[in-house]
Every structure is written in structure tokens, then in C-alpha cells.
Amino acid sequence: MKKLIIISFLFLTSASFTINKNSLDAKNRFKIKSVFSYKNEGIEYYRKEINRAFSLLKKQKKKIDLELNKNEKSQILSIAFPEILRYDSYSDYLETSSNKILYVNEGKTASDFSTGYFQMKPSFVEDLENYVANTESLKSYNWILIQKKNETEARKERINRLGNFQWQLRYLKVFWYVAEYKYQNIDFKTTQDKIRFFATAYNYGFTKPEKEITKYQSVKKFSPEEKPNAEKFAFADFSIDFIKTYSSFFNQ
User: Fold this and answer.
1) Per-residue model confidence (pLDDT) at position 29
2) Cα-flanking dihedrals φ and ψ of residue 132, to 5°?
3) Which end of the chain is less enclosed by CB atoms within 10 A, N or C?
4) Domain residue spans in the chain?
5) How large is the angle between the packed helices 191-204 and 165-182, nearest 10 degrees?
């Protein structure tokens, strides 16, 4: 009887070890496969998320055609396209509801949050307004400035605009022309080089030093998934992919 118990125990232990070993092997194989897939596919690793973002933007084509010139449409859209990868209407609503009130009452130091398709922040719009207001060559874009209102009213108007896709398009368009003026002395070898720099400036901050923006172009810190272990690429990698893959749709 004792022998039978011992044999049964050894059998169960062996079976358990085999199952655990197989389970670990399966996990390791999956992990290796995922890493290999990421390295092998590159940005294609996120094609599902990229296609979803394109679908969201495609639904806004009428507004895009109304606001942007045909020749520059896809280029302007490309610089902010990566932000749409992270956009979620439900989360956006929840996150902005309380932040709006805080920003209107106390300003960007109290609340500076990303909102809308292009994940624009109030501080970004304020910087854009200030740059346009203080640059004589850009006075034709003074229409983005909020006139004849006190600070609280201006912040409220700014927030209302940010909640409107058409206004985000307008801000993005003005940013493009600000970037063209601000970085006119850079000798971009190709259109893609220009888009990569402009997209990085949009993401990193166009008020930052030019050298910092140049350096940040290759930094792989952006991912459609806001998870600690998500595979990351340079922000502008997704902008370049947009130009290569989807620009023909918007250039029609």
C-alpha cells in the first residue's frame, strides 16, 4: 500500500512538473515570438491600431477638405496623426470634463491636458497664439487670437474651440505655417525629413530649442498603447507611415 502511495505521489509530481514546464515553455515561446514579431514587422506591429486611427480621420474628410488646401492636406494631417492612435472618445470625455473647469478657472498651471483627435493641450494653443501675435510675418493668422475678452473668458473660448474638430484642424494648419516660418533656415533634404521634424516639434514642443527637437526625432518613446511594456517607436515614424500609406485618400 505504501509503495502504491509513493508511486502515485511520484507520478503526480512528475506530471505536475511536466505541465508547469510545458506552460513555461509556451509562455517563453509566446514571448520570443512577440519580440521576434515586433522586430521583424517594425511599425506593422501596430497596423490594426493605425488602421483604426485612419478610419476615424476618414470620417472627417468633408471637414478636412473644407479647412485644408489639397496640396498640403496629407502633410499637415501627418504631423498630428500619431496622436489619433491614442484617442478614445469615451476616455477623452471623462478626462476633460473636470480638467476643463480647472483650466478655465485657474489656467494651464493648474490643468494642462490633452484633448480631441490631435490631443492638443491648452498650453499648445496659447504658445501658438503668442507666436502668431508676436510675428509680423504671420499676422494673416491673427484670426486664431481671442479678442476683447478677459483671461477667464479667453480660456473658456479656447477650451470650446479645442472641443471642436474643425478648430483643431485650424490650429494644426496654423502650426504648419508657424513651423514653416520658424524653421525656414533648415535645409531639409526630402519632404519626409521635413515632416519628421515638424511632427517631432508638434509632439515634443515647438518652443523647445531646435537642437533638442532634432535629437528627439529618433527617440523611441511613443506607442499607441499606454502600457509600461508596450513596444515603442519614434513619434514621427507613424507620421511617415501615414504619408506612405494613406496620403492618396486625402489628396483626392
Assistant:
1) 43
2) -65, -45
3) N
4) 45-250
5) 120
